[in-house]
Design a protein that fits this description.
- The chain has about 450 residues and is mainly α.
- It has three domains: about 120 residues, no CATH class; about 90 residues; about 180 residues, Intergrase catalytic core (hpI Integrase, Chain A), CATH 1.10.443.10.
- Helix content is about 45%, strand content about 5%.
- The protein is built from 17 helices and six strands.
- It has a three-stranded antiparallel β-sheet with strand order 1-2-3, with helices on one face.
- Strand 4 and strand 5 form a beta hairpin.
- Helix 7 crosses helix 8, helix 7 packs across helix 9 and helix 11 runs antiparallel to helix 13.
- The radius of gyration is 28 Å and the shape is elongated.
- The two termini are about 45 Å apart.
Length: about 450
């Protein structure tokens, strides 16, 4: 049930206190609206909750508009028109689109307009005839407006995933605004603005060594947000960035470590002593399981099975979005992974849901201690080394994909490789654990 629902006279009502940051702009202390849904017909508040969430989204857009300096009359007229149209059983349709509707659909609105003196109400006239001026976000408002429209698509993101998702898109908007030099409604963006943004990134790729992939990611994120807003708000924006991606983008995986280097250097006695315990254990686990760092750092007591006949871990969503649907899998524990997880059986407090911090700390340590033979080696290279060891013993592709959490691109039949089969192969590629793990019981 929505946080903003309350019961009043047998009907569900939307009710929300005006946040402190908007109190000076909106003199109402509390905003209330009826959902028009009777409690007796929706006792759990599910239908009313959908209405309340929509009203809340519109209210937040109104407050953001006030904060950006938009005239209150402009902001209220469109919202009032939409709400009034819905209250009379109609969707709000712009007048230009309404005149293209069948005659019967237009007549129904005119008839509704003539009932109960509604013709004298400006909000009703604008709502039924589609004449209210549509709210158009400024460039600086692209991300918050986009986020408010697709919020349900981010519900399965963990806190860290949401932070990364937010930061990338926020940076894209900020960079675009800085490059074109003026905040303006997104309907006033031009193809020339898009070309200027592309040339900005092209210059950075040529002069600063920025990867084309980085430039294309920002262009793609900005383009995606504008497309989504254009569709949802019916703005009819052109695809400004069509064909403007930079060429030269390459996908390059980290270079795998040689098995001998891992065993004799990284797992050597004292080689990782300067790292904190959690980071050391994660490195040991990656080396013998091939798990992604983010997958390891989100393990906990409910996904670590040390007392099972075959000790294993279960990689599952558990409050975060999986990289792919094939990432959900079970991995037997061999080599240093088993004692490392015995030490971390309750999970990873320091780096939980924060693989970025782990990777930064681990890679810095490996670099400073001559444990990265080339710049292309990183802690993630251990995962690719794990796969190379499986290939070397001629493990089946389906088994490798199952262990790595990859999509085999083939139809899936049955349950896939068993724990017993996975264990058989993992025992063959297990590394000798670091000396600090020898006494772990």
């Amino acid at each position: 049930m929505s946080d903003f629902l309350t019961r009043r006279n047998g009907t569900w009502h939307f009710q929300r206190r005006v946040p402190t940051e908007y109190a000076a702009l909106d003199p109402r202390k509390v905003v209330r609206h009826s959902t028009k849904i009777r409690i007796s017909e929706d006792r759990a508040g599910r239908r009313a909750g959908v209405v309340a969430d929509r009203l809340n989204k519109e209210l937040e857009a109104f407050w953001r508009g006030l904060a950006s300096g938009r005239p209150k009359a402009e902001l209220t007229s469109y919202t009032a028109a939409r709400q009034r149209a819905r209250s009379l059983g109609f969707d709000y349709i712009d007048n230009a689109m309404l005149v293209q509707q069948p005659f019967e659909a237009q007549l129904a609105r005119v008839e509704a307009l003539g009932q109960n003196g509604a013709v004298n109400d400006p909000a009703t006239r604008a709502g039924l005839l589609g004449t209210a001026k549509r709210q158009v976000p400024l460039i600086s408002q692209i991300f918050p407006e986009y986020k408010s429209e697709i919020e349900e698509d981010t519900l399965d993101l963990s806190e860290d995933q949401l932070r990364i998702w937010t930061n990338g898109r926020t940076r894209a908007v900020e960079a675009f605004l800085e490059v074109i030099g003026r905040d303006k409604p997104i309907t006033e963006i031009t193809h020339d603005d898009a070309l200027t943004f592309r040339e900005h990134w092209r210059g950075r790729v040529i002069n600063e060594g920025i990867a084309a992939k980085t430039a294309n990611k920002q262009i793609g994120q900005l383009s995606g947000m504008l497309k989504e807003l254009s569709i949802i708000r019916r703005l009819g924006l052109p695809d400004f960035f069509h064909g403007l991606r930079l060429k030269g983008e390459t996908e390059k995986d980290p270079t795998p470590y040689d098995t001998e280097f891992i065993q004799k250097r990284i797992l050597a006695d004292g080689a990782l002593d300067g790292l904190n315990e959690e980071a050391r254990m994660v490195i040991y686990i990656i080396a013998d399981t091939g798990l992604r760092p983010s997958e390891i750092l989100n393990l906990n007591e409910s996904t670590i099975f040390l007392d099972a006949p075959i000790p294993y871990v279960r990689v599952m969503a558990d409050g975060r979005r999986m990289k792919t649907e094939h990432s959900d899998r079970e991995i037997p524990l061999v080599g240093g992974a088993l004692p490392a997880l015995k030490l971390m059986r309750h999970g990873f407090d320091r780096y939980h849901d924060n693989s970025s911090n782990f990777s930064a700390a681990a890679n810095k340590y490996l670099q400073e201690n001559d444990l990265r033979p080339t710049k292309d080696h990183s802690v993630y290279s251990l995962r690719h080394s794990f796969k190379d060891r499986l290939v070397a013993i001629e493990a089946q592709d389906s088994l490798i994909d199952s262990l790595m959490g990859h999509d085999s691109k083939k139809p899936k039949y049955g349950k896939g490789p068993s724990l017993e089969l996975k264990l058989k192969y993992l025992k063959q590629i297990a590394l000798t654990p670091a000396k600090e793990l020898n006494d772990v019981k």
